[in-house]
Each structure stands twice: as structure tokens, then as C-alpha cells.
Amino acid sequence: MLVYPGSVFWPRPTGRPRPPQALKSSFFVTILKYLLTYISFYLLPIVPAGTERRSHLISCRVSWKCLPVDSPSTGRAGDKQPGRGSPPHPYSSYAPSSGAAATRLNACVSMKALSVSVFFAVTSPRRLPLSSAFAQLNIHRHRLKSARPATSNDMETDAAALDAELMSTPGFSLEQRVDSQLRALSAQLMELAGLSVAEAVYDVLSGHEGKEDQRKKHVLLVCGPGRLQHVHKGNNGGDGLVAARHLVHFGFDATIVYPKRSPKQHFINLVKQCEDLDIPILDDVPIDSTQRFDSVVDAIFGFSFRSGGIREPFATAIVNLVELQKKQDAVLVSVDVPSGWDVDGGDLTGGANFHPDVLISLTAPKLSARQFVGRHYIGGRFLPPALAQRYNIKFYQMPSYAGCKQSIEVMNANQDRANWAQAYQDYLNEKESGNARKEEISCTDSSDSSRVDEEEDWAAAYQAYCEEKEKEFFENTANEN
Ligand SMILES: NC(=O)C1=CN([C@@H]2O[C@H](COP(=O)(O)OP(=O)(O)OC[C@H]3O[C@@H](n4cnc5c(N)ncnc54)[C@H](OP(=O)(O)O)[C@@H]3O)[C@@H](O)[C@H]2O)[C@@H](O)CC1
């Protein structure tokens, strides 16, 4: 009889004894997962290698092995398991409630993920590329990182899980074989993210009404550090490099500040492409420059920023960037997360003077966007619907893009508060007086008014979502303390 390697080679999680209720649920879960594992074992060889179905099958196998069996004994209000307690975290598939259980699962499942992937890569009649095996391992490593109690970093780890999954989607990165398979960068995602940033900056500088100022606009882009050892680090800076190139193609002038260049080949290529377009690349923010900058783009830190002090040279770069922006009255634009802000908690410095005028959230807004006051865009139009569904991304986190646009300005409740509040009040009054706006829209079939209606719904729903997440965040922080 064929024996599934993960169940033999790797020890089960051990530790505190489980209470009867947990034993009961874990018994059925165990039966279920072994049943599914063996069925999939026989299915796997007949699914062609390199296909999405096969990759999905392996992904499912590992997920089944991850089914939590440990949680009821420590269950608390914040549990994120489907079907238990409060609704799942918007990005998480599940998270066990005990830190110890999460650690055991993390170690155990990472090893199992590796064993499953490598076993099938080696034994399959139609060989699966080893790269896919590592990609699966990476996804589950990230998933398991979020398999712990909610902390202030949850949104980051969940976003990282989503990122890892996106980056290993066939066609996005693995087929490109950049560097080595493990170090393959999400070149395509970064290209689309950078394009959406450039489009939003273009939109901001060109004005809403389409009355374009004839003067050539000049944008300064400050790009964050890259790191050799880590697979997915420094991508925020990469978005900035890509955006600079697109802005030049859009007819703007661009200057890049890139104090700590990444040695990764993809970043070297991006820099070369910018140099070929005669984009100046500086090491420091040109604080005394006589050059007029219409916009300053902060592409320094994204969701992987670790709060607790900004290391040099970026501490000085951020101070100079803000000074330059104020001196020149330039529009300060942040990519994904304002630099120095915690991905969840936002500005934890008590107002360190870093408050961008424009925020471009990539893929979906992070929790810190709740604190943002200004023009809010969403970019990164590459999230497959199935993945969005899996991560429970709600419609108000990802409003539908118009036509071929790569970014969309979303109505921020904080933005232009008076006008927005008045408009929203008018809308409510209209509804209350029985003059239902939606009925009007369906009668007149006016696409303009339906868009306004959609935006208002989006803003209200997003506001409610933010409040809910903020409450949850502070509750969890209080619990931890
Ligand atoms: N979601 C998506 O699908 C897509 C996301 N994309 C983009 O990727 C971004 C996330 O990128 P990322 O994970 O590469 O990390 P990111 O934030 O750029 O840099 C971390 C760097 O900062 C450093 N660092 C950290 N803390 C520090 C401190 N206190 N002081 C000083 N340095 C500090 C850290 O150094 P380390 O701590 O590792 O030494 C590391 O070098 C995301 O926000 C989005 O813009 C798109 O490109 C593609 C699609």
C-alpha cells in the first residue's frame, strides 16, 4: 500500500492534552483529511503537470493537512475559524486561537507542505517543476504565519499571504524564471502596480475635469530599500521605479531617489530602463534643488515596514522629503502604505508629520487607510476573482474599475468631509422622503447617477468595515496587553 509521506516522516503536533470536545471534532477532521488526502493521491498522477488544476490540487492537499484540530480549548471571541465565533478576517482563511497551537502547526505544516510538494515533484510520472513545489511551500508558510492570534501585524501577514499566492500564480512570475525560482520576483504584478501608481499620479496632477495644464509636470519618486536575502522585500521601491518609467512615457519628467539599491536582477533591470529614459537617479532627496516638483511620491516602505524607529538613510530621506514637499507645495503621494505607518495601526508616532495628500492602496486598502485623510485611490488591477473570494475581499474593498483604468479613486469619507457629508445627507433625505433614488435610476437608466450611487454605497460600507476592523484591532491589542 502506498503511504503518504507527510503522515509518516513528520511528527504530529504534541503538547497539552485536548479536551473531549476538541477530540471529538479533531477525530472527524482527521478522518476527513486523510480520506481527501488519499483520494487526491490517486487523482494527482492523472492531472497533467504544470496545469493550474494540478497546482490547485496540491494546494488543497496541503490545506487539508492544515485543518485545525486544536482550538476549542482556548477559543475566544476573536477566533477566526470558519463556522466558529466571529466572521473570518477579511484576508485570512482561518487562524487557530492559541499561539502555541499556531507555532506547532506552523512548523509541522511547513514541513508537511515541503514533503508533499517534493514527494510529488520527484515521484510523479509527469514531473511537476520543483519551483511549483517551493511556491506551494511559500504560500503555506505565509498562510501559517497568519495562523496565530490576531495581532497588530495581522493585516500585514495576511496581505503577505495574498501577495505570496498572487506571486506564485502561474503566468505572473514562475514562468519568468528570474534569478532562481525561489527568488522569482512578481515582475508582472509590480509592473501593473507601478502602472496604476503612475496613472493615479497622472490623474491627480492633470485634474479631475480633464483640463490639462500644458506645463510639463515633474515628479520626484523616492524608492525604498531592497534586500538580497529576502524573497519579497523592497517591492514598494520597485513600484516607484516602474511608476517613474510610465510617468515619463505619459509625458512627465521624473527624478528618482534610490538610496539603497537592490542587488536583485529585476531591480537592476528596472534601474537600467529608467537610465535609458534619462531619468536622473539620485542617492539623496534634493532638498535644496531649484527644480520644481509638482508631486513627490513616497515609495519607500509598504506593508513590510516594521514600526519602532526608521533606520537610516530613510529616516533622513523621509524628513527631507516632507520638507521639500512643503517648501514646494508639491502633492505628496504614498504608495500602498504611507511610509513609517504601521500597516494596521497607521501613524503610531502620534503625528510624525507624515500625512500624504494622496494614498494609492494596492490590491485592497490596508487597515491603516482608515486614518488617512485625502484622495484615496485603489490600484493593482490583477486580483483574480477566485482569489478575492478565497481571501474574503469584500466589494467595498475592491470597487469595480471603469473601462481599462488601472486605478480608481474611491470616495473617502474623510475627504472633503463637508461636501461629502452634505451630498450623503441629501441622498438620505431623498430616500427618506419616499423618493427612492434607486427607483429613479432604474427608470432613467442614467449610468452617471448609478455610479454616484455606487460610490456612496461604497463609502458607507467601507466606513463601516473600517470601524469594525478598528474596533477589533483595539480589542485584540487590549487582550494582548
Ligand atoms: N500586494 C501585492 O500583490 C503587491 C504588492 N506590491 C508592493 O510590495 C509592497 C510590499 O513589499 P515588500 O514586502 O517587499 O516590503 P516593503 O514594504 O516594500 O519593504 C520592506 C523593506 O523595508 C525595510 N524596513 C522595514 N522596516 C524598516 C525600518 N523600520 N527601517 C528601515 N527599513 C525598514 C526592510 O528591511 P528589513 O527589515 O527586511 O531589513 C525591507 O527592505 C507593497 O506594499 C506594495 O507596494 C507590488 O509590487 C506587487 C503586488
UniProtKB/TrEMBL annotation:
<feature type="region of interest" description="Disordered">
    <location>
        <begin position="72"/>
        <end position="95"/>
    </location>
</feature>
<dbReference type="GO" id="GO:0046872">
    <property type="term" value="F:metal ion binding"/>
</dbReference>
<protein>
    <recommendedName>
        <fullName>NAD(P)H-hydrate epimerase</fullName>
        <ecNumber>5.1.99.6</ecNumber>
    </recommendedName>
</protein>
<dbReference type="InterPro" id="IPR032976">
    <property type="entry name" value="YJEFN_prot_NAXE-like"/>
</dbReference>
<dbReference type="GO" id="GO:0000166">
    <property type="term" value="F:nucleotide binding"/>
</dbReference>
<keyword id="KW-0521">NADP</keyword>
<feature type="compositionally biased region" description="Basic and acidic residues">
    <location>
        <begin position="431"/>
        <end position="441"/>
    </location>
</feature>
<feature type="domain" description="YjeF N-terminal">
    <location>
        <begin position="159"/>
        <end position="395"/>
    </location>
</feature>
<feature type="region of interest" description="Disordered">
    <location>
        <begin position="431"/>
        <end position="455"/>
    </location>
</feature>
<dbReference type="InterPro" id="IPR036652">
    <property type="entry name" value="YjeF_N_dom_sf"/>
</dbReference>
<keyword id="KW-0479">Metal-binding</keyword>
<keyword id="KW-0413">Isomerase</keyword>
<keyword id="KW-0547">Nucleotide-binding</keyword>
<dbReference type="InterPro" id="IPR004443">
    <property type="entry name" value="YjeF_N_dom"/>
</dbReference>
<keyword id="KW-0630">Potassium</keyword>
<dbReference type="GO" id="GO:0005739">
    <property type="term" value="C:mitochondrion"/>
</dbReference>
<keyword id="KW-0520">NAD</keyword>
<dbReference type="Pfam" id="PF03853">
    <property type="entry name" value="YjeF_N"/>
</dbReference>
<dbReference type="GO" id="GO:0052856">
    <property type="term" value="F:NAD(P)HX epimerase activity"/>
</dbReference>
